[in-house]
Amino acid sequence: MKILLTNDDGIRAPGLWAAAGALRQVGEVFVVAPEQEQSGVGASLTLHSAVRIAAAPVDPGLSGDPGRIEDGDASHPVVAYSVGGTPGDSCVLGLESVVGAVDLVVSGINSGSNLGWDVVVSGTVGAAIQGYVRGYPTIAISVGAVHNPQFEGAGRLLRLLAQRLSQAPASPGFFLNINVPSIPVERISGVEVTRLGRRSYAESVREEGSGTDKRYRISRNRPVPGEPQPGTDVWALKRDLISITPLEIVLGHQEKTLEVEGLVSGIFAQLLDHPC
Ligand code: MN
After folding, report:
1. How many whole angstroms from 146 Cα to the centroid of ligand 1?
2. What separation in Å is there between the alpha carbon of 273 and the centre of ligand 1?
3. pLDDT tens, position by position, 21-55
4. What is the pLDDT of residues 137-165, one digit of tens each?
5. Which of 90, 92, 142 lies closest to 116, judged by CA?
6. N or C terminus of the chain with fewer C-beta within 10 Å?
7. C-alpha 7 to ligand 1 mean position (Å)
8. What pTM does this model have?
9. Counting beta carbons within 10 angstroms of the beta carbon of residue 238, is it exposed (0 to 12), middle (13 to 18) or buried (19 or more)?
């Protein structure tokens, strides 16, 4: 099995190497990840300048892998490249240039959850989208803590999923967003297949400086009031469950068609009648 591994926390992030250590038990791992941390850049691509790509050192701490296979030395090689661009750039360059076709695309393991509507801001999911749109089975995976994140459960899960997918390939359009509680594995309550919740965190804005130096700092640190809907990813993670959400890219809203047809009824004739 050939696996492209990327992330948005950057080439030195421990979660990336936890994923590499787990996935190399199943197949060849090609790490293509941003030089710098890029959390929250979503699916952005660098389209107005050329992007640098260079061979990068493979993390020496890859021994002691989470979820090492017991029946011996099934480790596959790992190679790594750093990209002077976004997570999306990294995935595009991996699949279109330095690696080529793969059997699985993985983005993560991210430090910090990516839940509900926040997935449109997530660089972890943003990178993964480039695997999905090319038709590769794709997994975005995060743990629910930024400080002192625990990757063991997520690493073990990744290895098991990759193994299962290598035995029974996924159907077309297979795209998962996984969130794992950042707690010791034995305290995780179970695995739940979920749907995306709504907002998981709200933004707060703080003013800094004054006069022409005045700036506004946006932080995503305000909990959204109210209880999350049962069956959502937000709900599952709150209950210490591993949340696995099948994703697709659907922004169109067909239910609004009639309302919008009413809104624009006769508008083209008016538009022709009123030159600017
Ligand atoms: Mn991140």
Report:
1. 9
2. 51
3. 999 999 999 999 999 999 999 999 999 999 999 99
4. 999 999 999 999 999 999 999 999 999 99
5. 142
6. C
7. 7
8. 0.93
9. middle
